[in-house]
Write a structure and sequence with these properties.
Order of helices and strands: EHEEEHEHEHEHEHHHEEHEEEH
Structural class: alpha/beta
Strand content: 15-25%
Number of domains: 1
CATH topology: Rossmann fold
Distance between the termini: 34 Å
Shape: globular
CATH class: Alpha Beta
Number of helices: 10
CATH architecture: 3-Layer(aba) Sandwich
Largest sheet: 8 strands, mixed
Radius of gyration: 19 Å
Length: about 280
């Protein structure tokens, strides 16, 4: 296929950084889990919004392996791989990448349902199975039930794209009264309840009485980080790493949630390394 094929998403510098971060953490994660004995664990890789499996760099025009392709090359390998996407064309591409491997399972459909019904039950804590799960939604397409289930299972390390730009576009307006019912419903489904309102808006006194002032993206991301610990049940959640567009605006934050302090230490080291030479 040519680089101009519509099948390939063009990605910018920070998306390439994100892929490198996930690849580096996946390698460390797999090494640790593969070496675990007494008891031994089976560890798997899950990608809820797997996409095409390959991208095109906006900067160079070259092909860039996507997260599924990178995961399949990690050594030592994961025991199994679960790739999910809603788009039939992307699912066909993922199946080509899987190349009939018996350890790769590709699902077509809504990952919110498939993860809860078909995938998470295969990585139960009591079965000595563990998972690294990437949830990189295209917008506010992820449901809180999935996030909370991942935390309560205690067997999953979860990478999460916290889509703050899409939140701002749909729900986090400076004038909250003007937000549509659809936008509010999307935000509530992602956040899990209406508590985001008290996070995003702060009452401030003015000459005309109290008015609601919208707080910044970092405040919202930090509140969600705390929510992952206090409500979803993850014991360790790294500080969110901002991912920016070409104009320097934060498009989303990358978070890692785990039950282990070592996971938080590893990813924060990786975050620092890429932030330093990426200018975050």
């Amino acid at each position: 296929m040519s680089r101009s094929s519509p099948q390939f998403d063009e990605i910018g510098y920070w998306s390439e950084v994100k892929l490198e971060i996930i690849k580096e953490y996946a390698k460390a994660y797999s090494m640790i889990l593969a070496a675990q004995r007494r008891p031994a664990f089976e560890h798997v890789y899950i990608d809820g919004f797997a996409g095409w499996g390959v991208h095109v760099s906006r900067e160079t025009g070259e092909f860039v392996p996507g997260s599924p392709s990178n995961a399949l090359l990690v050594e030592p390998p994961f025991r199994e791989y679960y790739f999910i996407d809603l788009d039939k064309r992307k699912v066909r591409a993922l199946r080509r990448i899987a190349d009939q491997r018996q350890d790769v399972h590709v699902f077509e459909g809504d990952c919110n349902r498939i993860l809860l019904e078909n995938v998470f039950p295969r990585v139960r804590y009591e079965d000595y199975r563990r998972a690294l799960c990437l949830l990189d939604p295209y917008g506010l397409d992820l449901k809180w039930q999935v996030i909370k289930a991942a935390g309560k299972m205690q067997s999953i390390d979860m990478f999460l794209n916290f889509p703050v730009m899409d939140m701002n576009r749909n729900a986090l307006w400076r004038n909250p009264a003007a937000v549509s019912k659809t936008g509010i419903a999307k935000m509530k489904a992602f956040w899990g309840d209406d508590s985001w309102r008290s996070v995003v808006y702060k009452p401030v006194p003015t000459l005309f009485g109290l008015e609601e002032e919208k707080l910044g993206n970092a405040v919202v991301a930090e509140a969600f980080r705390k929510r992952l610990k206090q409500v979803a049940g993850f014991k360790e959640v790294a500080q969110p790493m901002p991912m920016r567009n070409s104009r320097g605006a934060t498009v989303y934050y990358l978070l890692l949630a785990s039950q282990k302090l070592v996971a938080k230490d590893i990813i924060e080291d990786i975050f620092r390394k890429y932030a330093e030479h990426g200018g975050a």
